[in-house]
Specification:
Strands 11-10-12-13-21-20-19-16-17 form a nine-stranded mixed beta sheet, sandwiched between helices. It has a seven-stranded parallel beta sheet with strand order 5-2-6-1-7-8-9, with helices on both faces. Strands 14-15-18 form a three-stranded mixed beta sheet, with helices on one face. It is an alpha/beta fold and 572 residues long. Helix 2 crosses helix 10, helix 6 crosses helix 7 and helix 15 crosses helix 16. It has two domains: 284 residues, Rossmann fold (3-Layer(aba) Sandwich); 252 residues, Rossmann fold (3-Layer(aba) Sandwich). The protein contains 20 helices and 21 strands. The longest helix has 19 residues. The structure holds glutamine. Glutamine binds next to strand 17.
């Protein structure tokens, strides 16, 4: 009781400071916090989202949040080379690619409330300081910054009416950037009371080839580091290339006081989608239910159903009847993380077609009409994904032309949509020098242009058009066929340029169809060639990869893989 009073009472002269969102009851929400030790990039998001999925399966309301250490306010300005793709949420928030993992695993749309950066936290604290909210106190990392972090977590719980909040702390334990997050979670655990906050440490088991065996020392040291912060893990997940040996698991158990059944081997699997079942088999979900005293609220019938649905999907992975190769053109070909969602969307579409999808990365900087046939000789379909700027753009246009003229299945995404318009304008409509003003600002036919007035109508200001928007689908079109006759669908956008409405009629007269449009304004959102003319030629001004889910693959990807299978069959 004393604790309850002290944490909620911040106006008296006191060292306690814990702002509480309205409607929040201490101890009524459960939290699972996931930390990484030893190295970053271990797949904390994959682990956390898989565990969250297993709880969701049991009918718990789950809400994930990623706490990023960097000072940027969002991920919009991050170089995908360094940080992977920018994942855009329906509300327009530009986030880390891990949010995509959560949306896919949980089949759940997230919002800005599921993503915090140090920059956001500090900004909130500094805004409060300027507004005089700290009543003359010196503003400190503890309790004010940590108080803000706890507030964010609790606010998410209230807003989503979450039973369990999954907190993923970015980076690695020991990083200066993330230290205050770890401290906040330690405080949270004390304030919420026993059995409310569960800690997971992800660690890495080395397997030096020269020794030929797994070594646990680095993992032990990493976990010790976490314990120095006053956090004792309840579960340890050991990343490794191969199944972690019993000996190593026992060692870790002994050194950390974590029971062996909660030391989990998270070794490499052919697909991340096999992890939820592996965790279920190891009994991790039951451990969590027990540790958080959630047993009485488990919906077993729903759990069995969800497990069966997932198993039907997961059992197809790796057992494919055929294989196709899809070429992806892109500037960031050096870094697969830049295209994480496209890779996943192709995996979903492949499973839906019982087909393995191999990806061929195509650097377009040296592609021209003369060599394009040879460069695309091996692929059964092609994607021109989102992008910015001049580099490789003419090569992409050459690829699109080749696909259009040779019946090669084509899916254009965002920039790939705009480039398809440019290609058609130049080579079919005879609009010589047609281009996007992103590349040639004063080109003779700016078929793709910045149109701030259009964005103003949507209340988005003059900059990037971001987030979910509705799309009206033309009945009878290829798009209508793919979206199973839906008249309106919703997809996610992230672009600055768009088709100039002045050119729509001239382009459509020559056969290209704009089959997806904004419900009220002349914003072109899907283009296609009719099936009679081309087996599969479609593009979206949006990013269809962002809405693809394992059990609900995005239709434009499914269609691409289907067409690629067909093309391959015709070739042989
Ligand atoms: N560069 C283009 C634009 O800003 C396309 C953006 C993208 O592909 N995401 O409109």
């Amino acid at each position: 009781m004393d604790l309850l009073r002290s944490v909620s009472d911040s106006t008296d002269e006191t060292e306690f400071y814990t702002p509480m969102p309205e409607g929040y009851r201490l101890g009524s929400t459960k939290y699972v916090a996931v930390f990484g030790t030893v190295i970053s990039g271990l797949g904390k998001g994959i682990f956390s989202s898989s565990l969250a999925k297993l709880l969701k399966d049991k009918s718990f309301r789950v809400a994930p949040i990623k706490l990023e250490g960097y000072l940027n306010i969002d991920s919009g300005t991050l170089n995908p080379f360094r940080h992977g793709e920018v994942f855009v949420l329906d509300d327009g928030m530009e986030t880390d690619m891990d949010l995509g993992t959560y949306e896919r695993m949980l089949d759940q749309n997230l919002s800005g409330a599921n993503f915090a950066t140090s920059g956001q936290i500090y900004r909130a604290v500094l805004d409060k300081e300027r507004a005089g909210s700290y009543l003359g106190r010196d503003v400190q990392m503890i309790p004010h910054v940590t108080g803000e972090v706890k507030y964010r977590l609790r606010e998410l719980a209230v807003r989503n009416r979450a039973d369990v909040v999954f907190v993923e702390v970015g980076g690695t334990v020991g990083d200066i950037e993330n230290a205050f997050y770890i401290e906040s979670l330690r405080e949270l655990s004390y304030e919420e009371g026993e059995g409310s906050v569960l800690f997971v440490a992800l660690t890495y088991i080395l397997h030096p080839p020269a020794l030929g065996e797994q070594k646990s020392k680095a993992a032990q040291l990493g976990i010790k580091r976490l314990m120095e912060y006053g956090i004792h893990p309840d579960i340890i997940a050991c990343r490794a290339t191969q199944q972690v040996s019993d000996k190593v698991r026992q060692k870790i158990s002994i050194y950390t006081n974590v029971p062996i059944q909660r030391v989990f081997s998270m070794h490499d699997l052919p697909s991340i989608y096999l992890l939820p079942e592996a965790m279920r088999e190891a009994g991790l979900d039951s451990e969590v239910v027990q540790l958080l005293s959630l047993g009485g609220k488990v919906n077993s019938a729903a759990d069995t159903r969800a497990a069966a649905d997932w198993s039907r999907f997961a059992s197809k992975i790796g057992k494919y009847k055929s294989a196709v190769t899809i070429g992806i053109t892109g500037k960031y070909v050096a870094l697969r993380d830049s295209y994480a969602s496209i890779i996943k969307a192709l995996e979903h579409a492949g499973v839906a077609n019982d087909t393995r999808v191999d990806i061929e990365w195509i650097d377009t900087t040296d592609i021209a009409d003369a060599n394009v046939a040879e460069r695309l000789g091996e692929v059964d379909g092609i994607i021109v994904p989102g992008g910015f700027g001049t580099r490789g753009a003419e090569g992409k246009i050459a690829c699109i032309r080749h696909a259009r003229e040779n019946g090669l299945p084509y899916l254009g995404i965002c920039y790939g949509f705009q480039m398809a318009v440019v290609e058609y304008a130049r080579n079919v409509c005879g609009l010589e020098g047609a281009n996007t003003t992103e590349i040639v600002p004063d080109c003779p036919h700016p078929v793709i242009d910045i149109l701030p007035e259009q964005k103003k109508i949507e209340g988005l200001g003059g900059n990037m058009r971001l987030g979910g928007q509705d799309i009206d689908i033309t009945p009878g079109s290829l798009a209508a066929e793919l979206f199973a006759g839906a008249q309106r669908v919703r997809e996610r956008f992230r672009h600055r340029y768009e088709v100039d409405p002045k050119y729509i009629e001239r382009i459509e007269e020559k056969g290209l169809v704009f089959s997806g449009r904004h419900p009220e304004h002349p914003i072109m959102q899907i283009l296609e060639l009719p099936r009679e003319v081309h087996p599969y030629f479609i593009a979206g001004q949006f990013h269809p990869e962002l809405t693809s889910r394992p059990l609900r693959p995005q239709p434009m990807f499914v269609g691409l893989v289907e067409a690629a299978i067909q093309r391959q069959a015709e070739k042989s």
